[in-house]
User: Which sequence fits this backbone?
């Protein structure tokens, strides 16, 4: 039974008529992350309270302020891509293709001609800068640059790689909205399907930022955890002793489909995207704003046709910085009022790092799994109560509770806010 | 480096970054009054580290309110090995 639409207290009476359109469902998901490659491996690790944060070994970080990160695990490029394919793709493109293959496989589209009508809308924030680093180095060392710099480093490279690899001929776009990129990508895909312009969209995000230059840049911003001696306990979202986040590389890909298309194809429906909300803080390049975040959440709920009472679980942006977590906590209290203490709030950034342009999609996937299994994953490394972050931070073990509807927040540098409302499949 | 040289070099970083007149920058000047936000402070801290060969911690950056705070922090560090 879909409790959301049967209980008058949960249903908003103000559903915009322009959005009265068919439902948007999820039929496939794929993940590359520090907890593993593959959604089930990722989900098992999340629920077990594991972390993929570790000391960086891919390049020399000795003497540097930041020496930890969350690189993907189980990501065997040689087993998944031919040498020629891999050579033409940036790291983010490779991860996007591998995650997309899992998602399309689950959606039963890999062998189906139906996939040609699918669009691709992915989010990415730093992958272009990361991919271009060796090309800049070669130029300053030798005066020469490979022509591959252009197709490999263009921001649309991961989305294009997915489109080409799997023959997806619909809309092809990349969204860059910093840490909210892939949440906005999912939101835009949702809008396209509701409008009837597309019936299937492969969406989500892929991002890579763990390279020497970008790591130093992030380090200079003083937003990263300096727990180099204890990486497994770095990034403590909402905890009083939090000191910043850990950068991670990864990809999350979701197959969104109109409900009528999914039912016509007879493919299992995993969950539903009920709503998408957005706003811009118009405030600061780096500091968040409560009013902007509140607006995005309220818009997401309104677009879902639901009241705040409908939300059973929140997958927070929860970066683990003093400022984000304080402002997000205040935002949650503003929207949910007296119900705040009864809504378990999880941040997965202590487990997989901050995936930047891919964060929103991977966190949406965690939200889908929570709804599928009635299970709230723990907030890894939550240790001490901060009175300014007085939430139920889902610490300890995974919690078995009914999860019909999840709010997933993404709040970005530059003030772009994106919120998704995910619902259990009907 | 004399105290005066340190003050002038630090003032030069501020003026370059914040696009203010030299006589607006005194030890009592509040950084907010000069229009400096957190990103300005972080960028200037990075430049101070390079110019003076010192390390400035995140906590010290968060404690900066005035140009005088900057001078005091740098004076305590200049001459100490990084």
Assistant:
């Amino acid at each position: 039974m879909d409790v959301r639409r049967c209980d008058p207290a949960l249903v908003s009476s103000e559903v915009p008529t322009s959005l009265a359109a068919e439902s948007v469902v999820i039929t496939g998901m794929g993940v590359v992350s520090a907890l593993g490659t593959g959604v089930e491996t990722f989900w098992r690790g999340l629920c077990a309270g594991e972390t993929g944060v570790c000391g960086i070994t891919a390049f020399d970080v000795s003497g540097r302020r930041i020496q930890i990160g969350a690189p993907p695990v189980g990501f065997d490029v040689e087993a998944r891509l031919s040498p020629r394919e891999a050579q033409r793709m940036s790291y983010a493109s490779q991860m996007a293709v591998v995650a997309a293959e899992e998602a399309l496989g689950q959606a039963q589209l890999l062998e189906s001609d139906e996939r040609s009508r699918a669009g691709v809308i992915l989010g990415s924030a730093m992958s272009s800068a990361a991919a271009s680093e060796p090309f800049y180095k070669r130029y300053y060392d030798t005066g020469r640059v490979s022509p591959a710099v252009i197709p490999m480093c263009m921001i649309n490279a991961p989305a294009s790689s997915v489109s080409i690899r799997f023959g997806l001929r619909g809309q092809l776009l990349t969204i860059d909205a910093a840490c909210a990129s892939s949440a906005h990508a999912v939101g835009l895909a949702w809008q396209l399907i509701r409008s009837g312009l597309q019936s299937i969209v492969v969406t989500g995000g892929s991002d890579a930022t763990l390279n020497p230059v970008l790591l130093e840049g992030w380090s200079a911003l003083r937003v990263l955890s300096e727990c180099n001696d204890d990486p497994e306990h770095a990034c403590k979202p909402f905890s009083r002793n939090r000191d910043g986040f850990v950068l991670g590389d990864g990809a999350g890909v979701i197959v969104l489909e109109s409900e009528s298309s999914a039912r016509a194809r007879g493919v299992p429906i995993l969950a539903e995207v009920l709503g998408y909300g957005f706003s811009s803080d118009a405030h600061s390049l780096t500091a968040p704003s409560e009013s902007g975040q509140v607006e995005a959440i309220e818009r997401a709920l309104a677009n879902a046709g639901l009241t705040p009472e409908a939300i059973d679980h929140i997958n927070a942006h929860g970066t683990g910085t003093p400022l984000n977590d304080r402002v997000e906590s205040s935002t949650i209290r503003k929207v949910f009022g007296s119900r705040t203490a009864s809504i378990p709030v999880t941040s997965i950034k202590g487990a997989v790092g901050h995936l930047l342009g891919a964060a929103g999609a991977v966190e949406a996937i965690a939200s889908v799994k929570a709804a599928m299994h009635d299970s709230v994953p723990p907030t890894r490394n939550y240790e001490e109560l901060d009175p300014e972050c007085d939430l139920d931070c889902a610490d300890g073990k995974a919690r078995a509770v009914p999860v019909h509807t999840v709010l997933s927040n993404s709040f970005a540098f530059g003030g772009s806010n994106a919120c998704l409302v995910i619902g259990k499949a009907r | 480096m004399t105290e005066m040289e340190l003050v002038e070099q630090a003032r030069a970083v501020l003026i370059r970054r914040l696009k203010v007149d030299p006589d607006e920058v005194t030890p009592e000047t509040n950084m907010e009054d000069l229009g400096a936000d957190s990103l300005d402070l972080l960028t200037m801290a990075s430049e101070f580290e390079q110019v003076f060969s010192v390390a400035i911690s995140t906590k010290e950056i968060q404690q900066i309110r005035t140009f005088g705070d900057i001078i005091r922090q740098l004076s305590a560090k200049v001459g100490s090995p990084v």
